[in-house]
Design brief:
The chain is built from 2 helices and 7 strands.
């Protein structure tokens, strides 16, 4: 009976934690380079260690690796991504390995986790 309860708890935890990394609000300008569409511009919505969401005014391709350029508090970042989700003008991009900008993104996510968890008085 005890083994059954342990596996049920493990199953519930896996369902409750569907995302690999928490998201943090981030609003900065973003430039997207596509080999088929050229330069696209937008604004980020949120970021995690595994991806970023952005609002775009022009449709981005979903079948190619794109290059994103944006600036975080700790510096400029260039990363390669693939489109994983689209809802109207909001796009969800997953970072593609290897990416040299991921260290800056991880550091920013740690900083945002602290900053966004502090209650505003």
């Amino acid at each position: 009976m005890e083994v059954h309860n342990q596996s049920a708890v493990g199953h519930v935890q896996a369902i409750g934690d569907a995302r690999r990394h928490p998201r943090f609000k981030l609003e900065v300008d973003i430039r997207i380079y596509s080999r088929t569409c050229g330069l696209l511009k937008g604004r980020t919505v949120d970021i995690s260690e595994s991806g970023i969401a952005a609002l775009l005014t022009i449709e981005a391709p979903s079948d190619e690796v794109l290059e994103l350029n944006f600036t975080l508090p700790s510096g400029a970042v260039t990363v390669r991504v693939i489109t994983r989700q689209r809802n109207a003008f909001r796009y969800g991009f997953e970072f593609v390995q290897p990416n040299t900008g991921l260290d800056v993104i991880r550091r920013t996510c740690r900083d945002l986790a602290i900053e966004q968890s502090i209650p505003i008085a």
